[in-house]
Amino acid sequence: MWTPADRDLYKDDGRRYPSDLTDAQWALIAPMLSSYDPLKVDLREMVNACLYLEKTGCPWRYLPSDFGSWATVRTWHDRFRADGIWSEVAALLTRAVRRQRGRPAEPATVILDSQSVVSGPQAGIRGTDGKKKVRGIKRHVLTCSRGFVLAAVVTAANVHDTQAAGWVLDRAAEAGWAPVRVKADGIYTGARMEEAAARHGVEIQVSTREAQAKGFQPLPLRWRIEATFGTLSTRYRRLTRHWEHSPVAAEDGISIANCHRLMQAYQRHQYRYS
Fold first, then answer.
1. Cβ contact 236:55 at 8 Å
2. What topology is assigned to 85-210+220-273 in CATH?
3. pLDDT (tens digit, 9 = 90+) per residue, 85-103?
């Protein structure tokens, strides 16, 4: 139901673009960028430009000039990626948002799944997912129980989910996450999954839909990662298809979108319960 509180929350607040950071969001992440000493650019504008690109999916040379030169934005975009800024911000905000919602900061239960995505005409890796009949790439993603991304690995679409599962768990461990159990669907079985589970000391819990069930049947907890895929590929147009030349750039796009979701979630909760 649309309430006066909702109207106040979503009213036009005077920002140029809806993707621009609010003052509260900028105050939240500014300390994490304090190590930079830019000479001629506004770091907030560089972050705003990165978010604009993910939300709109526009090509680099179509970036509005009020962000500054697109080449300058590209330089800072690539610098943030090389320094791992988005991963650091996401790790801190994921813990903060989970605490806001009464959950332990460190997730014990995580969800693993993949999303096959059609590639654009650019050069780069691609393969065919024979089951889904998609030619392009596959996003292998691990989320917490709230649906926020903990780790992501991009491969060609023909790479089997169990082959990439170990890489995703490795990436999560490098980021400091140590889950106890992993929720996954029926494809995540076999020797490779057992080896990955043993290496990281996690329990793989496979959940499947009933064979006789008709129509859509959401599975407990696992539906959250499906919602995450839907949010990433519909609300962030750069992720609707695979437009990047490298898997690293594609993974960076997921990280930027995830950080934006976390900032919005943190601010929304503060607003409603302050």
1. yes
2. Nucleotidyltransferase; domain 5 (3.30.420)
3. 999 999 999 999 999 999 9
